[in-house]
Amino acid sequence: MRTLHVTAILIMLGAGPAVAEAPQWIVDDKNSRITFTAKQMQVPVAGRFEEFTATIRFDPDDLSGSKALIDIDVSSVSTPNPDIESEIKRSPWFDVERFPIARFDTTGIRAKGDKAYEAVANLTIRDVTKEVVFPFTVDINPHPSDSNVLVAHAAGEVTVSRLAFGIGRNEWKATSVVADAVVIHFDVVARRRK
Fold first, then answer.
1. pTM of the predicted model, to two decimals?
2. Alpha-carbon torsion 161, 165, 168, 171, what sign?
3. How confident is the model at residue 6, as a pLDDT?
4. Cα–Cα dist 191/170, whole Å
5. Fewer C-beta neighbours within 10 Å, C or N terminus of the chain?
6. What is the mean pLDDT of the chain?
7. By the 8 A CB rule, do 152 and 25 touch?
8. In this structure, which CATH number among 3.30.70.100, 1.25.40.390, 1.10.3720.10, 2.40.128.110 belongs to the domain 33-193?
9. Which residues, in sequence order, are CB contacts of 76 under 8 Å at separation 6+?
10. Which of 152, 154, 156 is nearest to 184 (CA)?
């Protein structure tokens, strides 16, 4: 079963006034997912990470205090094809024994209008960290059965280069079989009390 954590405290170092934090949200693991789509011989191959932990603070009126940290258990990767699922866990690909966790850690969030945002984040896969810009939308509504609870639905995707992260080594560097571009999609439902 997927384990999800929401951390209550961020540690501030250095002098100066403390920065206020946006409210924390508790992720609904049953209705949240992180998926990806790659192409093998030009045919889309879908996959999903079954387990991840998330620390999310978000307020559309306080983006400076908003932040997301998501740790993905790469060994929980699943695909409809058992052969592909087994192969991508091996050392030329994710190498899950040496690098069991991928991390998405925002450094800033900016509004783009009409519930649209961009997160600038450090994405770490294997032992490589790259900055990515992740466009997403957030829809926040009252819970249908509890007016004291808010429900947020955030969704977005980013395209990354697998080779930039060292995914697919040796003979698998060739993009004629497996394309370089991989689309990572986040679809997260979370709630908090007003």
1. 0.85
2. positive
3. 39
4. 44
5. N
6. 90
7. yes
8. 2.40.128.110
9. 49, 50, 51, 52
10. 156
**What is the DSSP annotation of 86-119?**
HHTTSTTTT-TTT--EEEEEEEEEEEEETTEEEE
Residue 123 has pLDDT above 60, yes or no: yes
- Within 10 angstroms of residue 77's Cβ, the number of other Cβ atoms is 22
Decide: 183 and 47 in contact? Cβ < 8 Å.
Answer: no
Tokens encoding 76 = 């929980």
Tokens 């387990």 belong to: 51
Q: Looking at the predicted structure, is the pLDDT value of residue 10 above 70?
A: no
Task: Output the CA–CA distances (angstroms, integers) from residue 82 to 19, 33, 85, 181, in the order listed.
Answer: 47, 20, 5, 22
15, pLDDT greater than 70 = no
Distances (CA, A) of 78 to 36, 57, 89, 184: 10, 28, 10, 14
